[in-house]
Amino acid sequence: xxxxxxxxxxxxLGLLLPRSIYAAxxxxxxxxxxFSLPFADPPGPGSWYLGQGYGNTLSAYFQRDTTYRAGxxxxxxxxxxxxxxxxxxxxxxxxxxxVDAPEHGALPHNLMIQLDAGYAALYGHLLExxxxxxxxxxxxxxxxxxxxxxxxxxxxxxxxxxxIRSPNYLTAYDPINLIDADWDALALVGAFQxxxxxxLSNPRQW
Length: 206
What we know:
Elements: H1 2-16, H2 19-22, E1 49-52, H3 58-62, E2 78-81, E3 87-89, E4 94-99, E5 111-115, E6 119-124, E7 137-138, E8 143-146, E9 148-149, E10 158-165, E11 172-173, H4 183-189
Antiparallel strand pairs: 1-2, 2-10, 3-8, 4-5, 4-7, 5-6, 6-10, 9-10, 10-11
C-alpha cells in the first residue's frame, strides 16, 4: 500500500513540474566514423569483397595453434579478398611508421601508418615492399601499396589484411566500428568460409 502511494505521488509530481524540466533532450547524433575503406573501386566479384571479420572467426579458431597463435585464436583485423596488385589506399591522413616490420607478421610485406586521428593502421600481406619511406606523410585516399597473398603465390589466398590499433600497437580495435561503410551489405557477399553471418532482421545478432 505504501509503495502504491509513493508511485502515485511521483506520477503527480511529474505532471506538476514545468515541461522544460522533464522534457526529453534531443539525442546527439553519433560521431562519424573517422576512416574509409582501403579501396577506390566498389566491392564486387571483379574487385574485392569482405573475406573475414574481426574477432573469434572460425578460421582463427581452427588455426589458433598456428597462424593465430599470437592472437590466442582471435583475428585482429579485417580481411578483404582482392586480386594481387589491387591498389590499397590510406584510410586516413598520417605518417608512415614502419615498412616490412617482421614483428607484426602479415607477411610477405606489411606497412604501418600512424594516423592523425589517434590510431595506427597495419596493412598486411602486401604484394611487394611499399615504395613509401618511414616518416613520410600520406593523405587520405593515397595509394600506399598493392594487395598480395599471405602465401606469396597470388592464387592461394589473395587478400588484404587490415588492422586498426592504438598508437602503441598494444590494443586492436574492430575496424568495422571505425571505418565508414555499409557493413551489412558487405557481410552478405560471402567470405573465405562460413565465419559470421549477420541476421539483418536482428542487426545486433551475429
